[in-house]
Amino acid sequence: MNSDFFSFERLLDYFPIILSKFPVSLYVVVVSTALALILGTVLAMIRIRKIPVLHQLAGVYISFVRGTPIMIHLFLVYYGLPLLLNAVFGHNIASGWNKLIFVFLAYGLNEAGFLAEHIRAAILSVPRGQTEAGLMVGLTGYQTFRRIVLPQAFRVLLPGLSAMVVSMLPATALAYLLGVTDMMGMITTISYSSQHSLEGYADAAIIFIAASIILEKLSAILIKKLNYGRKSVDGSL
Amino acid sequence: MNIKPELIWEAFKSAVSYIPITLLITLVVVVIGLLFGIIVAAIRTYRVPVLSHAADGFVIIFKAMPINLILVVSSLLFVTHFNSIASFLHLTVTVRDVSRIYVGIFALSFPAIAQMSEFIRGSLLSVDRGQYEAGYTVGLTFLQTFRRIILPQMMLVFVPSLTGIVIALMKATSLVILIGVVDVMNGALKYANLYFSYFEAYLAAALVYWGLSLVIEFLGKSVEKSIGRYRGDPA
């Protein structure tokens, strides 16, 4: 074992390099959460309306996503999407795509499975009378859903959503497995040339911890704001 | 579409034969998580001086750190430092004698303890303060109150979330592939390099994990039922 195992100079040297890759993780969180919100709402509506066949398929999908590791989802999308596109279009149109697209899709599909149940509970927490009131003043079903139900449901969803976003951030550290240069990928690149990776990992750990503390504080402020002075909501009535 | 069902079957059989390894790691990590999670949760809930701040820090750090980062760093430190620590303790074992599984269990324990303690703390706080006071009023000591009054009530809240944690930890054990442990994930990939059948291999691994999750969920449901049987309606 050599004495040159861990040095604070390298820790400081690598910090800006690794920090410069932090936006990649944030980017993955934002895009995949947006995807998941859309897909999750669709899944939740299918479950609430109990649309035949789709209802069962959504149940199987949610069960599958919740029961299998995110690492497998990453690789299933990475290897499976080209196969699917091949079957549909006859040739692989995904061959030149940015690897980030696969990462977005994998994390989005994964998160949707978890969010769907939260969204379902949030939508069901809005009293039925709200829908009736909307319909009574002449709004269509869609208008009522978008303008009356969704905003109220979102307030209930927010605590669960923010907890999920905070836990998503460390989960994105697997994106480097597909060859995306995020913080973990950068550490690998650095360690090839310098033979030192421990300092890089320490930097990444510091960044992850700081980011999650900041995110948690921000979401607490947001939740408080959206409550408009009312008692806090927890999804139950 | 050129998915070969026979390769899925091949990978599936290989993955199934490694189920004991995955379950072993999961079980040990869950037990460690429970034991230390109870301690951390108790320290944080009853605000033990000094220690409670350390426990807060521990939970914040290990909830925020990616599990794969903890695994890789543990493995790195293990390979570089194990020999010197062993010789310092006058042990005759070297790096080669210790299975990587233990490194995986060691690394996964930290996030497990952090997560577990959060859920235990939540269920501990779900029991009303008045329950403690009621216990003291009828002359029970703290330990008696805790065991006979608080614990049965908090279990009703804790057991449903325990199922979720066990499934999450079981899924997280798939990351031990990064430090070279052969578990379900690695078992499924055994032939993937040979036939270039990665999609089939991951699909097979997914099916095995899915099956395991469904079994754990079923077990959790039955435990929930037997715990909640004294309540009028199953919560």
Topology (elements, then pairings):
The complex is a heterodimer of chains A (237) and B (235).
Chain A: H1 8-19, H2 22-49, H3 54-67, H4 70-89, H5 99-124, H6 128-136, H7 141-171, H8 183-194, H9 198-227
Helix pairs in contact in A: 1-8, 1-9, 2-3, 2-5, 3-5, 4-5, 5-7, 6-7, 7-9
Chain B: H1 5-16, H2 19-45, H3 51-64, H4 67-88, H5 100-125, H6 129-137, H7 142-172, H8 184-188, H9 192-195, H10 198-227
Low-confidence stretches of chain B: none
CATH class of chain B: Mainly Alpha
Q: According to CATH, what is the class of the domain at 23-182 in chain A? A: Mainly Alpha
- Fourth-level CATH superfamily of the domain at 23-182 in chain A: MetI-like
Tell me what you see in this structure:
The complex is a heterodimer of chains A (237) and B (235). With 237 residues, chain A is an all-alpha fold. Chain A has a domain at 23-182: Orthogonal Bundle (MetI-like fold). Chain A is built from 9 helices and no strands. Chain A has helices spanning 8-19, 22-49, 54-67, 70-89, 99-124, 128-136, 141-171, 183-194, 198-227. In chain A, helix 1 crosses helix 8 and helix 5 crosses helix 7 (141-171). The model of chain A has no long low-confidence stretch (mean pLDDT 88). In chain B, helix 2 crosses helix 5 (100-125), helix 2 (19-45) packs antiparallel against helix 7 (142-172) and helix 3 packs across helix 5. Chain B has a single domain (22-230), classed as MetI-like (MetI-like fold, Orthogonal Bundle). Chain B has helices at residues 5-16, 19-45, 51-64, 67-88, 100-125, 129-137, 142-172, 184-188, 192-195, 198-227. By secondary structure, chain B is mostly helical. The mean pLDDT of chain B is 88. The chains are: A mainly alpha (237), B mainly alpha (235). The A-B interface holds A 1, 5, 63-64, 66-72, 75-76, 79-80, 83-84, 86-87, 167, 169-174, 184, 197-198, 201, 204-205, 208-209, 211-213 and B 1-3, 60-61, 63-69, 72-73, 76-77, 80-81, 83-84, 167, 171-172, 174-175, 177, 185, 198-199, 202-203, 205-206, 209-210, 212-214, 217.
